[in-house]
C-alpha cells in the first residue's frame, strides 16, 4: 500500500499522506476511543487517493463507502455485513459473484475475508472487500466502480 500512497512533506518537514483507504483510520479510532464498546456499528463515505495507473474502474481519486462493527461479540456479524454488502450491490446489478473466503491484500486482516465482484466490469471487477481485523469486522465498497455497473 505504501507504494500507492500520495506522500509529501508539510511546511515543517513532517511527512503527510492523503488517505488511501478508510478502514485503517477506523481501526485507529476504535483502538483509541472505543475499546470498551461492544458491537459499535459505524459507516462512512470517504474520498480516498491512491497513486495508481488510472484506467477504467481504477482511479487516483475515488470514494469508499464502508461499514464496520467494532468489538463484535456475535459470530453472526460477518454474515450480517456480507448480506448488507450483497444487498447494496444488488441495488445496482443482479449479476455479481460472492467469494466468502479469500486472502485479502492488506496486512491488518486476521483471517480470510470476503469479496463481491461484478464480472461485467472486467479486470477491475471487485466492488466490495472486507473481513475481520483485531478491533472488528467490516467492508469497503468502491462507490465509483459500482456506479459503472449497468442495472
Protein model, in words:
- There is one protein chain.
- The chain is of the alpha+beta class.
- It has one domain (2-7, 16-55, 62-147): Bira Bifunctional Protein, Domain 2 (BirA Bifunctional Protein, domain 2).
- The protein is built from three helices and eight strands; from the N terminus they run ββαββαββββα.
- The chain has helices spanning 23-33, 76-90, 143-147, and strands spanning 7-9, 15-17, 40-49, 61-70, 97-102, 113-117, 126-133, 136-142.
- The protein has a six-stranded antiparallel β-sheet, with helices on both faces.
- A hairpin with a 5-residue loop joins strand 1 and strand 2 (15-17).
- The longest helix is centred in the middle third of the chain and has 15 residues, at 76-90.
- The protein is globular and about 50 Å long.
User: What is the CA-atom radius of gyration, in angstroms?
Assistant: 16 Å
Query: What would you give as the CATH superfamily?
Result: Bira Bifunctional Protein, Domain 2
Shape, per Cα inertia axes: globular
| CATH class placement | Alpha Beta
Q: How many runs of DSSP E, i.e. beta strands?
A: 8
**What name does CATH use for the topology?**
BirA Bifunctional Protein, domain 2
Second-tier CATH architecture: 2-Layer Sandwich
Name the average pLDDT.
88
Helix and strand content put the structural class at alpha+beta
Secondary-structure element pattern, one letter each:
EEHEEHEEEEH
Helix-residue proportion: 10-25%
Report the end-to-end length measured between terminal Cα atoms: 32 Å
Number of helices: 3
Strand content: 25-35%
Q: How many domains comprise the coordinates? A: 1
Low-confidence stretches: none
- Largest beta-sheet details: 6 strands, antiparallel
Strands in their spatial order, largest beta sheet: 3-4-8-7-6-5
Amino acid at each position: 500500500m505504501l507504494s500507492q500512497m500520495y506522500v509529501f512533506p508539510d511546511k515543517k518537514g513532517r511527512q503527510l499522506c492523503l488517505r488511501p483507504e478508510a478502514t485503517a483510520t477506523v481501526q485507529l479510532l476504535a483502538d483509541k476511543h472505543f475499546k470498551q464498546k461492544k458491537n459499535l456499528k459505524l459507516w462512512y463515505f470517504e474520498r480516498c487517493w491512491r497513486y495508481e495507473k488510472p484506467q477504467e474502474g481504477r482511479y487516483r481519486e475515488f470514494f469508499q463507502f464502508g461499514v464496520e462493527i467494532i468489538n463484535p461479540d456475535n459470530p453472526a456479524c460477518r454474515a450480517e455485513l456480507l448480506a448488507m454488502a450483497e444487498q447494496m450491490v444488488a441495488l445496482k446489478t443482479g449479476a455479481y459473484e460472492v467469494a466468502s473466503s479469500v486472502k485479502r491484500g492488506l496486512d491488518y486482516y486476521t483471517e480470510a475475508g470476503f469479496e463481491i465482484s461484478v464480472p461485467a466490469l472486467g479486470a477491475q471487477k471487485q466492488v466490495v472487500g472486507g473481513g475481520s481485523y483485531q478491533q472488528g469486522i467490516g467492508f469497503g465498497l468502491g462507490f465509483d466502480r459500482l456506479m459503472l455497473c449497468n442495472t
